[in-house]
Amino acid sequence: MKLMISAALLLAATISPAVAQDAPANANTSPPAADTLAQFTLDTPVEQIVADERAKAVLDANIPGVSTHESYDMFKSMSLRQLQPYSGGQITDEMLAKTEAEFAAIN
């Protein structure tokens, strides 16, 4: 099962660079500082979620292993909504709904 997730994430990583080329050359691609007020959603890049202690706690509680996954560097710029199809069913709609509700509580 872990191999399936890794394979899916590798596939996602090969798709992501092509999408990233559409961004303007001068776009700021670094995540905001963890101490800035942020609105976390299922469309927030995983690396921005992990940068905030409260949001990371929500992520780790509802979708264990995402922030510590061996392929984290390959999918960290993706949102949870983008990552779900590549998870091989490991990230369910129910997990996302619960995560979204808890993000709303900390926003």
Describe the structure.
Helices cover 52% and strands 0% of the residues. It has 107 residues and is mainly α. It has one domain (2-19, 39-106). Helix 3 (53-62) runs antiparallel to helix 6 (93-106). The model is unreliable at 14-23 (pLDDT under 50).
Helix content: 40-55%
Number of helical segments? 6
Radius of gyration: 14 Å
Shape: globular
Counting copies of identical and different chains, the oligomeric state is single chain
Overall strand count: 0
What structural category characterises the helix and strand content?
mainly alpha
Q: Roughly what fraction of the amino acids lie in strands?
A: under 5%
- How do the helices and strands follow one another from N- to C-terminus? HHHHHH
Residue windows where pLDDT falls under 50 for at least 5 positions? 14-23
Mean pLDDT: 80
Distance between the termini: 33 Å
